[in-house]
Amino acid sequence: MKKLIGIFLTGILALGLTACGNSSSAMQNSAESQTEKGKIAPVEIPEQETGQPENGYAQAEADSEGNKTLIAYFSRSGNTKRLAEIIQEQVGGDLFEIKTSAPYPEDYDSILDQARQEQRDNARPELTLPVENMEDYQTIFIGYPIWWGNTPMAVLTFLESYDFTDKTVVPFCTYGSSGAGSSFQSVSDAVPGAVMFDGFSISGSQAEESQNDVQSWLDNLETPDSFNLETKTVRLNSGYDMPIVGLGTYSLSDEECYQSVLVLLENGGRLIDTAYMYHNEAAVGRAVRDSGIPREEIFVTTKIYPTQFDDPRQAIEEALVKLDIEYIDLMLLHHPGTGDVEAYKVMEQYVADGKIKSIGLSNWYIEELEEFLPQISITPAVVQNEIHPYYQETDVIPYIQKLGIVVESWYPLGGRGHTKELLTNEVISSIADAHGVSSAQVILRWDIQNGVIVMPGSSNPEHIKENLDIFGFELTDDEMEQIKVLNRDEKHDWY
């Protein structure tokens, strides 16, 4: 698992020890920074008796690889400020306070009224000072209090004022009684192209003494695309957790599909993949409803086919009606086609409305992604491609994962007509014998250890159960390498 501490904390913790008590501020100036929805207004920087700008030119700290860390925060009562200070004490870096040009009211109820109005208006309050040389910061902690159940709009002004592409963004917040709400998702949406890490939230009344809680969070902080083998999930860049093993329903008839989904759910599986072109969305939805398992514990993926791109809104509504499960956890464009960008933008609107939780792509490769991604607002949470030991996508998978997008495999066992050849491969069979498992389990475990979600298709109850049981053993580095050399770049479908 990729831990945040392994990326940047190791180097800057040492710096933080030497910097305790020496709070450094992010470099600031009065230059105007203009964005489409909000702006940072120029103001005069107050001078000290020496005539130098107050906290104007603090030396930024960097880790051993030269990566600089910024802890930016917006605070009303001081709770979020204190939390930011505790984070700085533990990781080092520079503090920067986000301030609005027009101060908010002192009265708490008045603030909430204003916050609610700003959310209704989708306002972007004007800010005072910008961060100088923001491009030099690689890791940005962003803190705020929860206002009216979400991120203060001033924080969105700040986030939209800079390019966070390829930067690491880590949200943290204080709250009264509502928890973090959807604020982490709001932050993620405001920084397309950034790598998002798990956020931290705590009651404002506990912020002052939160050192241990913050340290525990930092110690266990993971990138969204890190697999958690205990919960058997991965945190998507959308902020939602997705199971890493599931069931593909391609070619399953209604009754086969219904029974297979029930078997999956009865045996602990929670990920189901369907599509418009599979003609079994209604069967999937019926099984989910009949399972007796809380809806929020189940993750359902469906897809829009290119023939639907001319009217994506109708396609989405049709999927919602057929599934009849309140919302769609993940919706993908099935593969590239005319009108795919416009169709994706409609999916983005449904994310904003809460009817779709996460969106992504299927059968997109490097060239297609390079053309597609600059035209959209929400970074895909998942890219689903054909991946198996004979077609390993050794260039594509790292490219996608570097973007903070989770990779998912369809045809993980080679696909119909090719499965037998793969399962009887001598190398894979030998590894299976060594672990006392099946060849299918070895292949699925190989995918998981490569950071790839798997959704093998089957209507056989025993196979469905077996495919879920891949967490009781681990492949060695040598075994992973043995499977790696089996690659033939042999694609088994036309996508």
TrEMBL record:
InterPro entries: AKR, Flavodoxin/NO_synth, Flavoprotein-like_sf, NAD(P)_OxRdtase_dom_sf, NADP_OxRdtase_dom
UniProt key word Transport: no
Gene Ontology terms, MF aspect: FMN binding; morphine 6-dehydrogenase activity; oxidoreductase activity, acting on NAD(P)H
Signal peptide feature range: 1-19
Domain of life: Bacteria
EC number(s) per entry: 1.1.1.218
Top enzyme category: oxidoreductase
Domain Flavodoxin-like: start-end pairs: 69-222
Keywords: NADP, Oxidoreductase, Signal
Database matches in PANTHER family: 2,5-DIKETO-D-GLUCONIC ACID REDUCTASE (PTHR43827), NADP-DEPENDENT OXIDOREDUCTASE DOMAIN-CONTAINING PROTEIN (PTHR43827:SF3)
Protein family according to the UniProt entry: Belongs to the aldo/keto reductase family.
Protein name (Swiss-Prot/TrEMBL): Morphine 6-dehydrogenase
Encoding gene, per UniProt annotation: morA
